């Protein structure tokens, strides 16, 4: 019993130490980006929630408002990087080789791969995971939680930390609502019940629904910040 | 630099210690369950991949072959437990309060809530996460990885560990294939490319496709084991 307690203590202590160090590096990143006039977003969502597809649709529009760079986080493969790089956007892949989240140190290590002074928006697509990335500040100015209608409408209540910590909720695949037993309204109501200030965008990459509004919102928040 | 190295070392050491302890408890659980004639399954999949719905459809059929008990793992809420308990099946909820996976110790702690001698199948639905639960043996005899067609067909390659460690792949929501840019065949091909021995079941809770086959398979594997 003693050994179990000891292990539990050191796990908590180590996690606290890791998160503290992560936060400190994240603050440095935020300062560096902001001093370069850069606005940073961190996208968190389950595997297959549609984060990359959302970026494929949003970034061409956002590029009309400012210059974008993208960091892609994946456990394995550089598929997502290739999809975004095809938009002629500076893109860097972080392959975590098993790790379940990006850390601020990983971001810090790849920042030299960008010409920061030539960018306005830096978009980070986190590893597909609705739990672990939540605790790791990456130096972002805004956090977006991405959830597809096909995941069901109770997700905000079952994975509350992601929705509480996010500034923006993006519901994806809204075009599939007629075919699934889940309601966009319920996702939004559930998210608002635990984070009433969350901004909400209901989108469909297929029909284009909500993509314009989301892009305008990002651009407006960015303008308000840099002014 | 020295401090960073030290932290990294102790993180790896601690993880190795935790996994070793987890494995040891898991072996004890497997022995205890098997000595009671029990067969145990561990379902791993993303949030919203359809694990609970799959159980709602499978367990009534499986109950004709043997007596079932279910352990539901969730970060928050007991919604899934209530859905399964409505089938009149002994069900226990483990609420992890933030933790991203179930551990064998959590399973050990709830086993006394069941009358093991009255059960044939114990089904564990893990926390919705395609990464972290993979490293944690829960004492199961078979591991099922659950992936919905709506998550896209490249998931086995992007999250390989889950698919490499699983005995069975269950593709869910196959009825939605016509509405998404993903192919069931590609999911299966990708999974087989990294784990050629994985058993595959393509299912739809809506149309009932594959539910019979999956149930028969579980029952046959169980019979082969206890004979």
Short précis:
The structure is a homodimer of 227-residue chains. Chain A contains eight helices and seven strands.
Verbal overview:
The first copy, chain A, is an alpha/beta fold. Chain A contains 8 helices and 7 strands, in the order H-E-H-E-H-E-H-E-E-H-H-E-H-E-H. A 7-stranded parallel sheet of chain A has the order 3-2-4-1-5-6-7, sandwiched between helices. In chain A, strand 2, helix 3 and strand 3 form a beta-alpha-beta unit. The longest helix of chain A has 34 residues. The first copy, chain A, is globular and about 45 Å long. The first copy, chain A, starts with a helix and ends with a helix. At the A-B interface, helix 1 and helix 5 of A face helix 1 and helix 5 of B.
């Amino acid at each position: 019993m003693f050994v179990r307690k000891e292990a539990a203590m050191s796990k908590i202590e180590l996690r606290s130490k890791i998160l503290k160090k992560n936060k400190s590096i994240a603050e440095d990143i935020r300062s560096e980006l902001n001093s370069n006039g850069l606005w940073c977003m961190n996208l968190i969502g389950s595997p297959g929630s549609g984060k990359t597809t959302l970026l494929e649709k949003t970034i061409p529009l956002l590029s009309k408002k400012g210059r974008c760079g993208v960091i892609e986080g994946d456990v394995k493969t550089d598929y997502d990087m290739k999809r975004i790089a095809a938009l002629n956007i500076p893109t860097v892949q972080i392959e975590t080789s098993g790790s379940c989240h990006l850390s601020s140190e990983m971001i810090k290590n790849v920042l030299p791969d960008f010409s920061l002074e030539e960018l306005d928006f830096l978009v980070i697509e986190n590893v597909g995971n609705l739990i672990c990335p939540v605790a790791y500040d990456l130096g972002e100015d805004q956090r977006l939680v991405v959830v597809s209608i096909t995941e069901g409408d109770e997700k905000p209540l079952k994975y509350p930390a992601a929705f509480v910590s996010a500034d923006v909720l993006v519901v994806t695949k809204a075009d599939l609502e007629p075919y699934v037993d889940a309601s966009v309204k319920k996702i939004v109501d559930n998210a608002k019940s635990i984070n009433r200030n969350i901004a909400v965008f209901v989108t469909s990459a297929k029909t284009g629904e909500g993509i314009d509004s989301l892009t305008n919102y990002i651009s407006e928040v960015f303008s308000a910040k840099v002014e």
